[in-house]
Write a structure and sequence with these properties.
- This protein has about 250 residues and is α+β, with helices and mostly antiparallel strands.
- It contains eight helices and eight strands.
- Strands 5-4-3-8-7-6 form a six-stranded antiparallel beta sheet, with helices on both faces.
- α1 crosses α3.
- The radius of gyration is 22 Å and the shape is elongated.
- The N and C termini lie far apart (about 55 Å).
Length: about 250
């Protein structure tokens, strides 16, 4: 309960800036009605976490982290809105489930999905989290991180088996990452669920940064032989179409 009270107090301080561009410490005390000692603790913690910043005159304003967070939320909402019609179109054409995934820390999170009408379906849901090393779409996000970020992730992450095909060997994972960057897509077999497969491609924003991954997923048998090249081309094309709507220019567009 004490933790919840601390969060509530911190939010109460931040909400003061809805109506004030900048505030002194004493003004925060007066407006919040909280004791000075309590306000001091909250403000100090918020400043350390960069939610508040203090100028040379001792006046506080909201930190730039709110711009970064706001941009991130806005970008993700835009991706969902722009991607959904193209995801539905791809699902209707290929009769496979389509997922939209973004990175959140050391995990991938599903932010949109459209199910197939096939009687046998894979388990996915909006909000599902998966490790970055496992699955075609998650590994897309890992592969387009900087080399330093990838190495840091590899050094601190235990590669645990989730299904029969999960990559748990670091050398093999590095090979897979290199293949993804060289080919512009990823394929996985039974990495998150047995007897399942997926193909995935990266989505770029207007700055050329990978901000999401899109995948088609279904039964492993559908992702073999002559079916695979078509599935790969369709997922790459859909990813390019979404990227263009986010302002990304391919070599053909330049």
């Amino acid at each position: 309960m004490s933790g919840n009270k601390t969060v509530i107090k911190s939010l109460s301080i931040l909400k003061l800036f809805y109506f004030h561009h900048q505030l002194t410490f004493q003004e925060m005390v007066d407006l919040s009605g909280m004791p000075k000692t309590s306000v001091h603790r909250q403000v100090k913690a918020l400043e350390e976490m960069e939610f508040l910043t203090r100028d040379q005159e001792g006046k506080y304003t909201l930190g730039l982290i709110f711009l970064e967070l706001g941009q991130l939320v806005s970008e993700r909402l835009d991706i969902r809105r722009l991607a959904l019609p193209l995801m539905c179109k791809l699902r209707d054409e290929m009769k496979e489930a389509v997922n939209l995934i973004v990175r959140e820390g050391d995990e991938a999170i599903y932010i949109e999905k459209v199910d197939t009408n096939n009687p046998v379906r894979l388990y996915t849901r909006v909000g599902r989290r998966t490790p970055l090393y496992a699955g075609a779409c998650s590994r897309i996000l890992l592969s387009y991180m900087s080399e330093e970020e990838v190495e840091h992730y590899m050094n601190q992450t235990e590669l645990k088996a989730i299904a029969a095909g999960t990559i748990t060997d670091r050398a093999r994972l590095r090979e897979s990452i290199a293949e993804v960057k060289a080919n512009g897509y990823s394929v996985s077999y039974a990495e998150l669920e047995d007897y399942s497969a997926a193909v995935a491609a990266p989505i770029f924003n207007h700055r050329g940064q990978v901000v999401a991954g899109i995948s088609m997923a279904g039964l492993e048998a559908h992702y073999q032989g002559k079916n695979l090249p078509l599935l790969v081309e369709k997922i790459k094309q859909t990813a390019r179409d979404i990227s263009r709507q986010l302002g990304y220019k391919t070599e053909m567009d330049r």
